[in-house]
Design brief:
The protein is mostly beta strands. It has a domain at 2-128: Carboxypeptidase-like, regulatory domain (Immunoglobulin-like, Sandwich), CATH 2.60.40.1120. It has 8 helices and 56 strands. The strands form 11 sheets. It has a 22-stranded antiparallel beta barrel. Strands 3-2-5-6-9 form a 5-stranded mixed beta sheet, with no helix packed on it. It is elongated. The relative contact order is 0.10.
Length: 1102
């Protein structure tokens, strides 16, 4: 009881101390612990322990306590020498003790009786088990980052999946929104937005897209990547997925550096296994240097790096453009019949007449349509489709550098400061120039041009008041600025005769509206262009370490402030005209591509929409994090880590009045921030109950076996708000549609055409703070009383040293509660119409009402195993990571499919893979220290010495396939939701791969009955497996002791095995017969990716 009261008192004191701090917590250091006893097993109190960082000469000192234990906190990462001495005992020295960030390294010893002048020295590196922590984490070393075959663009994030529970890296955003090529990983079944990326212990997540990182250092600049995935210490937070902390290298007392150059081009890329189209002409050059060393020996050190990237992608693209006769309204050569909808597009679909000779009279062709087609190039190839060959290119130039300075003010005070800079320019212009159209490069989503600039600052000071009291103060700052636009003629829409589009503002001064549904290429500029996004974030961290007996207590705080200034429309500020073949068809006759073109020639759309930007919607949001934890060394075998984290996430504040709003479904009113009775947070209160306990227990069964278990609660780091979808008052989206697909839309009694333009949005005076949005405006709602979601994570792991192989096996799981999601409150079910929308009946609201709330859940269960072996003599390493898992959720993004039956959305996560095996290796079999031929094999050394073979082998089961769609009358749903078919029996996996080959039996799927949802579950099938091996073969030539030249060749997909994409899950049979057309790809995997690619590189090291 006495010990419990003491421990509780300690925890209460340190927790209270947290709330007296003004600043804040994330780790950039490690710690050293140990136990000292004599040969009889008696503890040795008062022994002097001195640790020295060998490359910079800094030292720390402490004495063992009454139980023979010692603990040294806030240890700078590096290689250390540990010296332990006591009177009447021989001095003990252990060399090559490596301490990394976020690690606890144990050095125990048994002192031998003798004179203190006698020395027992151990130089061999010790196999390090995780003996004093229970979190699940992986350290990826500089050797692995530099030697393993990273992705084609050499992004360190591509090897995060050598950690169990981490999925393969996935690209995010476009080349304009994500110019530094940041990627994302799902960790232990959680959304990629839940990850916390740090650089030297400070913020590195972006604010606009928080799954992206601001700075992606080159691999040559990285010292270590720490990946924490489950039940991490209370110090780690602002994450419900993983915490990834990257440490930039520091200078030492020795000058070191490198020059590097890499090239990847299409000449060394294999042909696609299926596609007959020519490969893009690609040429990617990456080059740079690193250099570091002392400024003042043992006092001041520097490290710097630079990387340049020059990426060129060029390709001829086949597009479809109308032939000359069609442009003039002459469809006499077409088998499709063109019917006259009347000048106002309202003629009765069942009785409208056919145009004489299938030719539209010249006086009926809309002048704006004629002007647009006059600027559109004519076919340069025969045929009606794929009849225009265009050439384009993607150009991207990147330049980045990091510079870091470390300084030792004294033995008690050390500091570092780092500045990172990234700048880019990207151009991927639309293939039709001023008319817009698709991007120059296939697979790209944005046709644009624009610069990007990211900056990051991190500074840290560590002061040792005494061996038992240490503090760390840290500051971080990130700034990101990206923009994009398409150079186009000003007032082009006005020139063509489409009024009210080019208004002279930032968003719509140039270009034409988006034009879709013509049966040919989409014209116009993407709705998200132009954009200009600026974000700035900073965090201030203050951590304290107090050692009291067998307790190592840490507490601190992390204060963050995020600001986003975003000039970007959520819809299309130039507007969009959607044409439909139904406008020039008769009911029941069917349509073809030329019917849509005919409707365009008549200037009669089926639907129009436009976004008007009133305010820009920027925001500022602070975040406050506090923690306290105690590492209690109960006895030499048992360590208990317990702590508490407290997080505060205030709702974002609008920068200007009107920047935020939310729609109240109960009153049909929109509340506008900063006006009337509303504050800049729209009166949404802050939740102050986000307490997150953490517990970890580690027990050393013997010197080679550790049993660990951990539990922790983490809060979701994102805030649900309307900024991500529809923020009425800031941006107003209006839409008009015909009463069915055969007639044109009407506004104020008049038909909307190209020549009338799109009716303007009704701009309402917002100053009252409470307004009624028009019924045809999409609005966003939030729950003002929402409680933030959280993740409970837990693990039980056994780790053992098996003949030098560190092997761990364990259960890792988590459960998410109240996770963020979006649902449509105003949709209609199968067979419904606009009249069936709930708020249409109540308020006359004819479009979507999107609710964002903490409303969903998920679960993750896994068996995770890892094997790690370092080859000390030759410097190589092999790691094996295996995960057997099941991840279940309602949506792997935010929007649920079926808003009328939420539970029907629960199923395997989109990214779920049952089996995931990743083996990585760095092997040096020849030359000095090699197992096959060492320095004694003189004849072989010159021939075979210096080779390194590194690689990553991945074998994964397929990801889920979601069966979606329904073509039968009375089964189509509204908005973002999709109905599913019925399944009449078990689905046979046929295994066919390639066009025309069925991967699964599609005949068991049929249209559901009118007015019903299908019975197929979400993600009910799985696609083909994935097996891949990437390898790098390198040869190093030494010139004396200091200079080395390394030549590299990296092969991605060494065996050139076809990797098939998931089969199509789009259910699209005849609406009446349930039979599929010969062109349907439902159930077929028709494309491959990842064909073999070779990269060549040179590195000069000194």
């Amino acid at each position: 009881m006495k010990h419990f009261v003491y421990r509780f008192f300690i925890f209460t004191v340190c927790l209270s101390a947290v709330f007296t701090l003004s600043v804040a917590a994330q780790t950039v250091t490690g710690s050293l612990v140990g136990h000292v006893e004599d040969s009889a097993g008696a503890v040795v109190p008062g022994a002097r322990v001195v640790v020295t960082e060998v490359s910079r000469g800094t030292t720390r000192e402490i004495t063992t306590n009454g139980e023979g234990n010692y603990s040294i906190g806030s240890v700078e990462p590096g290689i250390y020498r540990v010296e332990i001495e006591q009177a009447n005992f021989k001095k003990f020295i252990r060399e090559n003790v490596e301490v990394a960030i976020n690690t606890t390294v144990r050095v125990d010893t048994t002192l031998e009786a003798g004179a203190i002048s006698e020395i027992v020295q151990v130089e061999e590196e010790q196999v390090q088990l995780k003996t004093d922590r229970a979190d699940v984490s992986t350290q990826i070393t500089s050797e692995q980052v530099e030697e393993l075959p990273l992705s084609v663009d050499r992004n360190y994030q591509s090897v995060l999946d050598i950690s169990p529970g981490v999925t393969e890296a996935a690209s995010v955003g476009s080349a304009f929104g994500n110019p530094n090529g940041s990627t994302t990983n799902r960790i232990n079944g959680q959304n990629e937005r839940y990850n916390n990326f740090q650089l030297d212990g400070t913020i590195n997540n972006q604010t606009n897209v928080i799954s992206q990182t601001a700075i992606v250092p080159p691999p040559e600049a990285i010292q270590v990547v720490d990946v924490s995935t489950n039940a991490y210490d209370a110090e780690q937070g602002r994450a419900a997925g993983g915490v990834i902390n990257v440490q930039i290298k520091s200078g030492t007392n020795r000058f070191r550096g490198s020059l590097f150059a890499y090239n990847t081009n299409s000449a060394f890329k294999a042909k696609n296994a299926i596609s007959t189209r020519a490969q893009p002409n690609t040429n990617l050059n990456q080059f740079g240097f690193t250099f570091g060393g002392p400024i003042i020996k043992d006092k001041t050190f520097f490290f710097g790096d630079y990387q340049g990237v020059r990426n060129r992608v060029g390709q001829n693209v086949l597009l479809s453009v109308p032939i000359a006769a069609y442009r003039n309204g002459d469809f006499s050569s077409s088998s499709a019949l063109i019917y006259d909808p009347g000048v106002n597009g309202q003629a009765t679909p069942s009785s409208r007449p056919q145009f004489a000779g299938n030719i539209i009279p010249q006086n009926r062709i809309n002048p704006a349509a004629r002007a647009i087609l006059a600027r559109l190039p004519l076919p340069n190839l025969p045929g009606l489709i794929n009849n225009y060959e265009a050439s384009g290119s993607l150009i991207q130039d990147r330049n980045s550098f990091d510079i870091k300075v470390n300084h030792n003010f004294s033995e008690a005070t050390t500091a570092f400061v780092r500045y990172s800079f990234f700048k880019s320019f990207t151009s991927d212009l639309p293939l039709f120039g001023a008319l817009g159209g698709p991007p120059s490069t296939p697979g790209s989503t944005t046709a644009s041009t624009g610069p990007g600039k990211n900056q990051s600052v991190s500074a840290n000071v560590t002061h040792v008041f005494s061996p038992k009291l240490i503090t760390e103060f840290r500051f971080g700052y990130v700034r990101v600025h990206i923009s994009g636009d398409v150079p186009s003629e000003e007032n082009l829409a006005t020139t063509f005769g489409i009024p009210g589009i080019n208004l002279g503002d930032f968003f719509s001064s140039n270009g034409i509206p988006r034009i879709t549904g013509t049966g040919y290429e989409t014209l116009g500029i993407l709705g998200t262009l132009p954009f200009d996004i600026k974000e700035s974030s900073y965090n201030i961290v203050n951590n304290w370490t107090r050692i009291a007996g067998n307790h190592t207590i840490r507490f601190g705080a992390d204060i963050r402030k995020l600001r986003l200034d975003k000039q970007q429309a959520t819809g299309n500020p130039r507007g969009q005209f959607t044409f439909s073949g139904g406008l020039t068809a008769r009911s029941g006759t069917g349509t073809s591509a030329v019917n849509g073109l005919a409707a365009f020639l008549l200037g009669l759309p089926q639907a129009v929409e436009r976004t008007t930007v009133v305010n820009l919607g920027g925001y500022i949001t602070p975040q406050y994090f506090f923690f306290a934890q105690d590492r209690w060394q109960v006895n030499p075998k048992l360590t208990v880590n317990y702590g508490l984290r407290y997080e505060i996430y205030p709702y974002p504040s609008g920068i200007n009045p009107g920047d935020q709003s939310y729609y109240d479904p109960a009153t049909n009113k929109a509340l506008i921030s900063g006006f009337g009775p509303n504050d800049d947070r729209i009166n949404i209160k802050t939740q102050y109950t986000n307490f997150a306990p953490r517990l970890g227990i580690a027990y050393r069964l013997d010197d080679k076996t550790v049993i660990r278990t951990g539990y922790g609660v983490s809060y979701v780091p994102i805030t649900v708000n309307t900024l991500a979808n529809q923020n009425y008052g800031s941006q107003i989206n209006v839409s008009f549609a015909g009463t069915n697909t055969n007639v044109a839309p009407v506004a104020a009694g008049n038909t909307i055409t190209l020549s009338t333009g799109i009716p303007p949005a009704q701009i309402i005076d917002l100053t009252s703070g409470v307004v009624t949005p028009p019924g045809n405006v999409v609005v966003g709602a939030v729950n003002p009383n929402a409680k933030r979601g959280y993740i409970q994570s837990y693990n039980f792991t056994v780790e053992r040293d098996l003949f030098g192989f560190v092997t761990s096996v364990g259960y890792v799981g988590s459960r998410g509660t109240r996770l963020p999601g979006t649902q449509n409150l105003n949709g209609f079910g199968p067979g419904g119409t606009v009249a069936d929308r709930p708020f249409n009946r109540l308020y006359g609201r004819t479009v979507d009402v999107l609710l964002s709330d903490f409303m969903l859940s998920n679960s993750y269960h896994s068996l995770q195993a890892r094997v790690d072996k370092r080859f000390k003599q030759i410097g190589g390493r092999i790691t094996v990571a295996y995960t057997l898992s099941r991840s279940t959720d309602y949506t792997s993004a935010f929007s649920v499919r079926n808003f009328l039956d939420i539970d029907s959305n629960r199923g395997p996560s989109d990214f779920d893979r049952k089996h995931n095996l990743v083996i990585s290796h760095v092997i040096r079999p020849f030359g000095k220290g090699g197992r096959l031929f060492d320095e004694n094999g003189l004849r072989w050394r010159g021939l075979l010495g210096g080779f390194t073979l590194s690689g990553i082998f991945a074998a994964r089961t397929g990801t889920p396939v979601d069966i979606l769609g329904s073509t039968a009358a009375g089964t189509v749903t509204s908005g973002i939701n999709f109905n599913r078919p019925n399944q009449t029996g078990p689905v046979r996996i046929l295994g066919g791969l390639g066009p025309g080959q069925q991967y699964f039996d599609r005949d068991v799927f049929v249209n559901p009955a009118p007015g019903t949802f299908g019975n197929v579950g979400r993600n009910s099938l799985r696609g083909p497996h994935y097996i891949n091996y990437n390898a790098t073969l390198a040869r190093t030539f030494s010139f004396g002791e200091r200079f080395r030249l390394q030549a590299q060749m990296t092969a991605f997909n060494v065996t050139n095995s076809p990797h098939f994409n998931e089969p199509s899950g789009t259910f699209n049979p005849s609406s009446t017969t349930n039979l599929f057309s010969s062109t349907s790809s439902f159930g077929q995997s028709t494309s491959t990716f990842g064909e073999r690619q070779i990269r060549f590189g040179l590195r000069f090291l000194f």
